Amino acid sequence: MIPNVLTIAGTDPSGGAGVQADLKTFSAHRTYGMSVITALVAQTTTGVSSVHPVPAGFVADQLRTLLDDVRVDAVKIGMLSEAEIIRVVAAELRRYALPNVVLDPVMVAKSGDRLLAAEAVTALREELLPHVDLVTPNLPEAADLLGEPELDDTENMPAQAARLAELGVPRVLLKGGHLAARHSVDVLYTAGKAEFLHGRRVDTDNDHGTGCTLSAAVAALRTGTPDWSVAVREAKDYLTGALRAADLLDVGHGHGPVHHFHRWWDGTEDPPGLSAGDPARHKGAIS
Ligand SMILES: Nc1ncnc2c1ncn2[C@@H]1O[C@H](COP(=O)(O)OP(=O)(O)OP(=O)(O)O)[C@@H](O)[C@H]1O
Ligand SMILES: Cc1ncc(CO)c(N)n1
């Protein structure tokens, strides 16, 4: 059976971040993608010009209408925009006991524009974080969630990930993409243990939506493995490939998108005929 994966997020007309990136990522992993939209965002590769949040009651309507009908195997949550939307999403997550929930605590776009009201960070930390299975903050988001200064080295990342876990979330993927290093280092913290994930840094301007793509890939991959660490490692490997192939795309004048279908369009796709439930589906994704 093909897994159903849901994104709850905002939009990006340029297709590199938000709901559009999530749906491409779900499809790239042979899962069936669905979306509940929290905010319409006028943005492109050069930045955000305005945000139009969806009324919280209508976000709830979208969720209930969908979840009364469709089985959901994994969820990725991205931009939530406002505290009221956070509350609605937290309530529906619990009401429907949704499995495999990955929260990308989107706060600020790469361009520096805010995607979450500053006063909504408390609601995110207290009302949503304790109800998800994995949270994937970048370094500024981790600092904001904890009310700490932003880290500028990898050494202290495991301890900071542990402090985030103390907020009530079982797994933390702390992303080091914002560090100016030769390697792009993330830390996965689970049950008292931290593991470093090293990816070669890709030299490209097309890095819009890397966080969205990574968290969506983790949710999709989790439907094919019981092991979160395997899902996270495969997702990072997929993202690194998408960054490496990103310069094939010619989209906009700023931070362009990554290449979500790099494995399919460059002739290196899996052989046809693997069924969606086959664990071999993701074979070859681990570096
Ligand atoms: N140039 C790069 N080369 C390789 N990996 C990268 C690069 N930039 C980011 N990454 C990786 O991408 C993932 C996302 O990291 P980042 O810290 O940029 O997230 P983010 O700020 O949430 O992204 P965004 O807001 O654009 O969606 C991490 O795994 C990070 O290590
Ligand atoms: C809708 C949306 N979600 C997340 C991000 C973060 O990259 C973005 N730019 N736009």
From TrEMBL:
Give the organism the record lists: Actinopolyspora mortivallis
- Name this polypeptide is given: Bifunctional hydroxymethylpyrimidine kinase/phosphomethylpyrimidine kinase
GO cellular component terms, A-Z: cytosol
User: Could you tell me what reaction this enzyme catalyses?
Assistant: 4-amino-5-hydroxymethyl-2-methylpyrimidine + ATP = 4-amino-2-methyl-5-(phosphooxymethyl)pyrimidine + ADP + H(+); 4-amino-2-methyl-5-(phosphooxymethyl)pyrimidine + ATP = 4-amino-2-methyl-5-(diphosphooxymethyl)pyrimidine + ADP
Function of the protein? Catalyzes the phosphorylation of hydroxymethylpyrimidine phosphate (HMP-P) to HMP-PP, and of HMP to HMP-P.
Question: CDD domains from the entry?
Answer: HMPP_kinase (cd01169)
Q: Recall the GO molecular function terms of this protein's record.
A: ATP binding; hydroxymethylpyrimidine kinase activity; phosphomethylpyrimidine kinase activity
* Keywords noted in UniProt: ATP-binding, Kinase, Nucleotide-binding, Thiamine biosynthesis, Transferase
Please state the pathway this protein functions in, per its UniProt record.
Answer: Cofactor biosynthesis; thiamine diphosphate biosynthesis; 4-amino-2-methyl-5-diphosphomethylpyrimidine from 5-amino-1-(5-phospho-D-ribosyl)imidazole: step 3/3
